[in-house]
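Example record for the data management plan.
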Amino acid sequence: ISTESMADPAIARNVSQGQSVGFAPVAGREAEAERALLGRHAHYECWKKENLPARWHYGTHPRVPAIVCAMDEGWDALHQEKIAKRDHQDRGSHGYDNALPSMRAVFVASGPSFRQGLVIDGFDNVDVYPLLAHLLQVPAAPNDGNPETLKKTLR
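Corresponding structural encoding:
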């Protein structure tokens, strides 16, 4: 889908493309941008950043655009010029809804700090950062990870 077909560039500037698509409404045209973008559409859904699903751990940082759209699995939003030049071979994508089974990852930890042979339940990827900060013995910057989640993996 072209980002230009999602919102006229005169009312909202596209700031990110792909599976997670961001728009910054043009000053004075915020209501128009919201009418054009917010809600469910064919192949994507858009929210104001403050209304994004909490499980995404996204939307509170000042760099997150005012309107964020999530493409349905298998769909991308790109500028028209990129679509025209695009190689149409299949390619991997990683920015879809984190609740989709296709967005799961494998976590393998090995080394003197970890218990061996342990299998744990799935967890949010943001929980890896506090673990890494702990292992490196550096203070963790503010983040959305839960430092308790992966403590059970440690010796």
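Summary line stored alongside the record: The longest strand covers residues 20-25.
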